[in-house]
Design brief:
single chain, 341 residues, alpha+beta, Nucleotidyltransferase, domain 5, two-stranded antiparallel sheet, 15 strands
Length: 341
Amino acid sequence: MSERRAALRAAESTAKRRKRPFLVALVGTLGGLIGIAAVIAVVAGVFVGGLARSFDAGKDVIADPFPNGSRPAPSDGARNILLIGSDSRGRLDPDGDRTSGGRADTLMLAHLPADRQAVYLMSIMRDSWVAVPGHGTAKINAAYSWGGVPLTVQTVEQLLDVRIDHVAEIDFRGFADMTDALGGVTVDSRQAFSAGGHEYRAGPNRLDGDSALAFVRERYAFADADHTRVVNQQAFMRGVVDGLLSRGTLTSPGRIQDFVTATRAHLAVDGGLTFRTLVGLGWSLRDVRSSDLRTFTMPTAGGGTSADGQSYVAVNTLAVQSLSQALRSNDLARWLRDNPQ
């Protein structure tokens, strides 16, 4: 009888370990950002007080991040977090493409459905040709140049017809520092390529900070340019999530503290995205595992050239309309089944 109870306790313990707290508070912005994704979920319950003081004291708060005037209605239980990656925070321009100080290099939308059974991370191609309020039609990353975070939020809200509940911005150096704080991350590359003096093979690659930064930023090595880059950024996000939820991290308060410290130094968020908010979201996602992180890219429809000679990525209008409906109705899982990538 005692052996049976011991077996049951062991089974329960295993089940609990599988349901690790998870929060992609992505914090960020892979600008690759979006290369970043700062998933702070892990900490619910582990020396939370000290981490809270560390996180809230070290981050920057974005002044007036949301647009004035009419906005989409709040979602019924779901949460949408816009992640912005911009060189302007770090004054970096490793691509030499003059986006520094001006344009949002990458955008991602983290969608937490009302039932909290998964986390969805959608990349928005930075050259997507969209309507920018007050400026006509342009590449979506121009919104940041013309109106900063508020206009970027307004542009995305108008495009998707959903409310952005929180916004987070991070500079590129943050990707490298967060990777090193985790002791490296493993990413899965679809193809072999070279970038920034680093070699990547098809399949799993163990990256340190510098090689991670080059991995999420590279686009010239690919025939489809940014299309493969956003896939690599999504792979990096998965690597960060897996690293945060690994036994080596969860059992190391020092490593979690190092990750939070590395994140806060490169992070700016809206005033409502406090550590307490992150922990609350993390607790609501306590049954979600790293395998429940689902990544995809907003539908596109080929490329084009504007009247003034800009090359852009066309938006698949019909697919985005159905995506918008799925986001509003908490039915993104079905939409992804009907629109596989």
